[in-house]
From TrEMBL:
Record-linked InterPro entries: OpdA_N (IPR045666), Pept_M3A_M3B (IPR045090)
Annotated Pfam families: TOP_N
Protein name: Oligopeptidase A N-terminal domain-containing protein
Organism superkingdom: Eukaryota
Length: 99
């Protein structure tokens, strides 16, 4: 139980899972990549499944939520890839390859 609480706390502090207007490149580290991307994919998969269950074929009920799902993944993965270009390290490459 304590391990689960510690894992949840670590995920809640993961900068890749925080809402942001501008990317905080200075606080993202290689150890954030695997758990952050995996948790994000799990959340977005749940969002997509919920959308499929409740789909209404309208712009605001289908397209807008799909765009939010795609945009969130695109922004976070773009942040990680940008870091790989400007702050490359073996740890970051390994984390990217793992996910």
């Amino acid at each position: 139980m304590a391990a689960s609480a510690a894992a949840n706390e670590a995920l809640s502090a993961n900068p890749l899972l925080q809402d942001f207007d501008f990317s905080h490149f200075d606080v993202v580290n290689p150890q954030h990549v695997c758990p952050g991307i995996r948790a994000l994919l799990k959340k977005l998969d749940g969002d997509l499944e919920e959308l499929e269950r409740t789909v209404e074929p309208t712009w605001t009920k289908l397209v807008v939520p799909l765009e939010k799902i795609f945009d969130r993944l695109s922004v976070v993965w773009g942040l990680v890839n940008h870091l790989k270009v400007v702050k490359d390290s073996s740890e970051l490459r390994s984390a990217i390859e793992e996910v």
